[in-house]
Amino acid sequence: MRIVLLATVLATLLPLAATAADGGQGLRWDNANPAWSTWQARLSVTSTLPLDSTRPNLTPPAARAALRLSSDRYFNLAPLGDGGGLRATTALWLGPKTVALGSAAAIGPEAWNISAGQSAALIDNSEQAATAMPYLGLGYSTWWRKLGLGISADVGVLAQRPGGASLGRLLSGSDSLDLTLRSMQLSPVFQLNLSYSF
């Protein structure tokens, strides 16, 4: 768990070092191209009310919640509308996978986006209540301020069991890369989001 958290923090903060430029006088901050103009952080919180078709007349089970903390790095390639473009995304999802997948991503020009929502969904009761899953993906976002419209599409992988892999066994050669990837239970993820504000 500590390795996953450390990798997420490093993947989020390490590219900020690229904004430091060598001007012959040591390292200095490049004011012409600030790092925050190409970075975006998102926080999504979702609460889901489970629908249990096997117990329609009984008291429903307790609601489940999930939190998703994401960081996007925009590459300023092929932007449409007022902003956006191709981006790389790294995230940490906390909570049941079905609830975390249901949380909509905030789309817009702000450097920090926070969204919260509640929905009703069929939830697998055997699913663990609290898990931390790292996500790595590539996506495209665009928005139009005057219309209040935003579109986002992502494709990536989600590690369902990041603690199942041991970096030490991989580097020592006792585990193969294939076995390490299989033990992490990588799952493909495709997300398509449409937002409208009025």
From TrEMBL:
KW Signal (keyword) present: yes
Signal peptide span: 1-20
Domain of life of the source: Bacteria
Alphabetical keyword list: Signal
Record-given protein name: OmpW family protein
Species, as recorded: Ideonella margarita
